[in-house]
Amino acid sequence: MTTSAPTNPDRLPPALRTEALEQLLVERGLVDPAVMDKFIKTYEQDVGPLNGAKVVARAWTDPEFKQRLLDEGTAAIKELGFGGPQGEHIVVVENTSNTHNVVVCTLCSCYPWPVLGLPPSWYKDPAYRSRMVREPRVVLAEMGLELADDVEVKVWDSSSEVRYFVLPERPADTEDSSEDELAAMVTRDAMVGAGKVGS
Amino acid sequence: MDGIADMGGSRGWGRASVPTDDEPVFAEPWEGRAFALTLLTMGRVSGRNLDAFRNALERLSPDDYLEDGYYGRWLNAAELMLTDSAILTPGAVNARVRANRGEDVDEPAAPEQDAKPDYQPTVAGSLRTVADPPRFAVGDRVRAKDINPEGHTRLVGYLRGRRGVVQRIQPAALLPDTNAHFEGENPQHVYSVGFESTEVWGSDAEPFQLSADLFESYLEAAE
């Protein structure tokens, strides 16, 4: 088998090569630019971490939904209308005051698209991919999250089509917040386990 | 396969970056175009699949993997899938870039006959059913086999030979190792296996539990 694509010594910029590839495929009728526009718009505008934030806020305010979410993540998330590519089977893991889950994909950048959209740059960074499975506390501290010594750390490497979604711990003093107000507090990094809500 | 993509545990990549709230989905417009072109390429245009795409990423040279950023990596893998399937002639993309710049360049003709693989998924997605019951149960001690396949695998290098405990049985799925090479779907049971950090990285490791999802054929019973 071939093991490597040829490397061009005078590498051309990817922006120009993308333009060229699109031209080559469109002029032969193999790709429809309107379909490309639709894919881009979907992930720029419709599918992103706001979906996951709604799931978290619902779980914080509805104990029965939370139980369904932890038991059968994919089905519970579907109740809110979210599903699709890279979300065939979603497992939800809960962060508490004594357990901290964090998700990584060391082989590529597998990520639960239906609830979080496309992965952010820090998740795709080789430093995160290589080191989260080796020294998670050090990596999390570099990202701004210091964990107490007595917190149990669990790292999930997304090495199959199972996708992991972290239910963050609800911040203190939010008893009077509405579901919408809670959703607005939830950050993307907290739903991966790279941060906490309200810290 | 062993290579640049199997990054787990490797050193030398520097500090992790700090998340920001306002990162755009695509930093530049071309990244969105490359994303969409790759999605269309992997199935519809090249006649390949998601596992073949991941294998194309793994087969990139380190420069092609790292130098163009994340969506540049996708672009390079898309180009590799298209030349593998003889939809594009090698060098066609670079020649078009130079022609677009006004350089005097002969653009290669498209291949007369494509070489798409003889491949059709049995159903959409990766989840499948397996008639036989799972070989391992929750709580069983297992060892990740020490194998070094030349082709695609989702058995990460850093877990080969390491012992862990089955934590959950996940839905069965097609086996990427054969599906990536159009050698059949070979549906298998999938297990979330928990490993102690000290089993993987030695007695000085930070204490934590590591979990990976492993296909049944990656595992053997451990004492």
Q: What order do the helices and strands come in, and which of them pair?
A:
The complex is a heterodimer of chains A (199) and B (223).
Chain A: H1 14-26, H2 33-46, H3 49-61, H4 63-71, H5 73-79, E1 89-94, E2 99-104, H6 113-116, H7 121-124, H8 126-131, H9 136-142, E3 152-157, E4 162-167, H10 179-185
Parallel strand pairs in A: 1-4, 2-3
Chain B: H1 29-45, H2 50-59, H3 62-66, H4 69-84, H5 92-100, E1 141-144, E2 163-173, H6 176-179, E3 188-196, H7 197-201, E4 209-215, E5 219-221
Antiparallel strand pairs in B: 1-2, 1-5, 2-3, 3-4
Please give the share of residues in helix of chain B.
25-40%
What is the terminal separation of chain B in angstroms? Answer: 27 Å
Name the CATH architecture of the largest domain in chain A. Alpha-Beta Complex
Q: Assess the beta-strand content of chain B as a share of residues.
A: 15-25%
The tally of domains of chain A stands at 2
Percent of sequence in beta strands of chain A: 5-15%
Regarding quaternary structure, what we see is heterodimer
Largest sheet of chain B: 5 strands, antiparallel
> Which shape of chain A, going by the Cα principal axes?
globular
Number of strands of chain B: 5
> What is the rounded distance between the termini of chain A?
50 Å
**CATH-derived architecture of the largest domain in chain B:** Orthogonal Bundle
> Percent of residues of chain A in helical segments?
40-55%
- The H/E string of chain A reads HHHHHEEHHHHEEH
Number of helices of chain A: 10
Q: How many domains comprise the coordinates of chain B?
A: 2
Largest interface: A-B, 80 and 93 residues
